[in-house]
Design a protein that fits this description.
Blueprint lengths: L7 H11 L5 E2 L11 E7 L4 E2 L7 E12 L9 H14 L2 E5 L2 E18 L4 E12 L1
Parallel strand pairs: 1-2
Antiparallel strand pairs: 2-4, 3-4, 4-7, 5-6, 6-7
């Protein structure tokens, strides 16, 4: 396995799209044409070897979940957030093959990095860590 072939962000994006999750931005937050909900995917640390011969690698991805605030006083759309979190809990753990590399994604909701809202942007945000095993 060549390190240049390992692209966990795009593998997760492809996996989510294959499971009818749309609005995924692996390169950051969109600045125009922003949908009412969207997701960001980014590395949260480096890719490390989990075996002596480097045939098993691991990393952590950060999944950002953004949901437009309700128009009443900037209230968080808790109903929509719960629907999305339930969908993610049904999708993970999962094994996915992307460009001849196998990725195992594991999500632990106790690994919530951030949960809050931003009145300026008009979105609530949840940031979740996904553990990724690559082999």
């Amino acid at each position: 396995m060549n390190i240049s072939e390992i692209i966990p962000e795009l593998a997760l994006k492809s996996f989510l799209e294959d499971n009818d999750v749309t609005g995924i931005y692996p390169a950051g937050i969109p600045i125009s044409g922003v949908p009412s909900e969207f997701f960001t995917v980014s590395m949260n640390g480096s890719i490390v070897s989990e075996s002596e011969d480097a045939t098993v690698l691991g990393c952590t991805l950060m999944l950002g979940v953004y949901v437009k605030l309700l128009t009443t006083n900037g209230t968080v759309n808790q109903v929509r957030e719960k629907i999305l979190m339930r969908k993610f809990s049904e999708l993970f753990p999962a094994t996915y093959n992307y460009e001849d590399v196998t990725y195992k994604f594991s999500l632990d909701f106790r690994n919530l990095v951030y949960s809050g809202r931003n009145l300026y942007s008009g979105y609530s945000t949840k940031a979740l860590n996904l553990q990724v095993t690559i082999y």
